What does this fold into?
Amino acid sequence: MNFLAHILLSGESEGIMMGNYVGDFVKGRLTPEKTANWNPEYVLGLKLHRFIDSFTDTHPEVLNAKQRAARTQGKLAGIVMDIYFDYFLAKHFGDYHPEPLRVYVHSKYSEIEKNEYLIPESMIPMVRSMIRQDWLTGYATLEGIDTTFNRLSRRADYLYPIKFAAKDLEENEAFYYGKFLAFFPELQANAAKFIVDNATR
It folds into this structure.
């Protein structure tokens, strides 16, 4: 899953949300020695991020959707699917949260800015661009998703084909949305259970 889903699946804790949000930028094993002086909720968020990624990567509906995306995106299908699913989450946000998308996203931007000290240094430029350009609200439209893929395609030569991924989404939206609907409620339930099962007592 991509940024919006990771944030939403964190629940109401800022600490868990920050760990989940930055999870791709914190490498290595989360050993007790390494995390001894870290905020426990932040560590739980990091672990939640890894759980979400593992659950997503092995789910049959997601694997089937990736097979379709791989026809045009090859090895980039996994990255593409994360963004497709954030598109569906943003577009239908009212089905998953009582606040309007824009209100929710901007409140999270404020929390992220307040907790910038928890963000790995290598991630900070991207975070500031995300907030300044309001990426998360833009996920709700095909135009916004096309902009996201164009932005990604410029990061490295191997990512260039992703520039055209929005076309596949537009042409096969019903198929991919069906996969999202079959998958995301299971992810929600399992992420919520993970938080409860792993919270410090």
